[in-house]
Design a protein that fits this description.
- Helix content is 32%, strand content 22%.
- It has helices spanning 27-42, 82-89, 108-115, 155-159, 162-174, 178-184, 186-204, 226-233, 265-271, 273-279, and strands at residues 14-23, 46-52, 55-56, 68-81, 97-101, 130-135, 216-219, 237-239, 257-260, 285-287, 295-297, 301-305.
- Helix 5 (162-174) packs antiparallel against helix 6 (178-184).
- The termini are far apart.
- This is Replication protein.
- It comes from Aphanomyces astaci.
């Protein structure tokens, strides 16, 4: 299992995950490589590091045929260049090696299994199949972790034009199948999904019968339990962050009231009186949520102040 389609990358190439094969014809050179890797690990460079046991190349069409070599799987905490790895591990390029970023299309566990496999190893003793291993190998996607980095296109997305994907996504969202839309078109959903939902939701919204309670203003001294009282009466309220105008995590289907806690003159100067008048409008108002299109909503406002 080679790490990538090409075994040559520029010395300036930087990555956090590197796959290496190093020819080691003599014991001193092998020990030098291992010592340098162990030293880098002691300095906290690696999130995960594995040095496979010595093996002999079995493919006549490759440069390591009948040559002793080791495989290294390295995941750094920070990006490292090919040139810095060669220097720090003291790799002698003339003796033969390859060093490339890990192929993200292949699983982590398969990467480890390939480097620690019995096949072609010189020793039949299992303890010699891994010369050095430290750190925790990341779990593969689908084993309890979310993928970091770019969301890859699904097979459906690869076969369709973006326009056709968006049309089908809109059909699914309007039919109430947003989860199915995400499963079919994850990459495009991350870009256009919330915008489509915003367009559709604003067209169909009707506020009759929703959030019809009167606005409340509760005044009292500090520590007299104003917020606790309102929380007891209205358990599903949304506490608005008074430091900005965003409404992150607000859901009008879940939150029955909006709490403006400890409203004072400083908050009014920051947000403006017009903001308070706007959100109290029974005819609905637009709210901004990060990564989403503006939404229309209507809310019952609860205000406490000293």
């Amino acid at each position: 299992m080679s790490s990538t389609n090409t075994k040559q990358v520029a010395y300036s190439t930087e990555d956090r995950q590197w796959d290496a094969r190093i020819n080691v014809q003599d014991e001193d050179y092998l020990q030098s490589i291992i010592d340098n890797i162990v030293l880098e690990n002691a300095h906290g460079k690696f999130k995960y590091i594995l040095v496979g046991g010595v093996e002999i190349g079995t493919r006549p069409n490759q440069s390591d045929y009948q040559v002793k070599h080791i495989h290294v799987a390295a995941i750094f905490h920070n990006r490292a260049s090919k040139a810095s790895i060669i220097k720090n591990w003291d790799i002698v390029e003339g003796k033969g090696y390859y060093l490339v970023p890990r192929n993200r299309d292949l699983p982590y566990q398969g990467w480890k299994d390939h480097h620690s496999k019995e096949f072609s190893k010189i020793s039949s003793d299992k303890k010699d199949w891994i010369l050095f291993e430290e750190g925790k190998l990341p779990k593969d996607q689908g084993q309890g972790v979310k993928r970091k980095g770019p969301v890859l296109r699904s097979e459906s997305e690869k076969k369709m034009k973006t326009d056709d994907v968006i049309i089908d996504m809109r059909r699914l969202i309007e039919d109430g199948k947003a989860e199915e839309a995400f499963a079919l078109y994850p990459r495009n959903y991350m870009i256009y999904g919330e915008r489509i939902k915003g367009m559709f939701n604003q067209k169909k919204k009707a506020f009759f019968g929703k959030h019809t309670d009167p606005h409340l203003y509760l005044y009292g001294f500090t520590g007299t339990g104003k917020t606790s009282l309102l929380q007891f009466i209205y358990g599903n309220y949304y506490k608005k962050n008074l430091e900005n105008r965003f409404w992150d995590l607000y859901d009008e289907e879940v939150h029955t009231h909006v709490m403006l806690e400890d409203l004072d003159s400083l908050v009014l100067d920051r947000l403006g009186v017009q903001f308070i008048k706007t959100i109290s409008d029974e005819a609905a108002f637009a709210i901004d949520q990060k990564y989403k299109a503006p939404q229309l909503t209507r809310a019952t406002i609860l205000v406490t102040s000293n």
